[in-house]
Amino acid sequence: MLTINSGTLLSKITAMKALNNNLKAIVCQKCPVCHKGDVFVPTKKLFQMPVMHENCPNCRYHYDREPGYFLGAMYVSYGLGVFEGILMFLTIYFLLPSLSTIYYALAVVAAIIGFSLWNYRMSRVVWMYLFPN
Ligand SMILES: [Zn+2]
User: Fold this and answer.
1) Which of 36, 50, 64, 78 could make a disulfide contact with 58, Cβ separation 3.0–4.6 Å?
2) Ligand 1 geometric centre to CA of 84 (Å)
3) What is the pTM of this model?
4) How many whole angstroms from 108 Cα to the centroid of ligand 1?
5) For residue 32, how far is its CA from the centre of ligand 1 (angstroms)?
6) Does residue 1 form part of some domain?
7) H-state helical runs in 28-115
8) pLDDT for position 52
């Protein structure tokens, strides 16, 4: 017989909502504390190196917790780059199976370079959400 504990179900729903809010804030590159302030200075230039705010414009949370804090974001960036490379490889493999191997390599490199600025931003935001203190 199946019994549903309403307290457990309610706590699972609350945890799912918190996860959903965090994912939405990560994708929108918002502050890990208040989820309202932008982490990066908005720019209209496509290939400009992203510039971070020192503190959250909304709650004044200091983003750079300590010297070298964002070194760990390199691991996240590496993971994103590998994921994008694999995704590009699989896309070409299934859409254009007769293509020469050199074009596979060029497309993977182009995808990694093309997403590098986005990876830079996302890796720092993800790192702040993983290790906020
Ligand atoms: Zn904030």
Assistant:
1) 36
2) 29
3) 0.82
4) 36
5) 7
6) no
7) 73-95, 101-114
8) 94
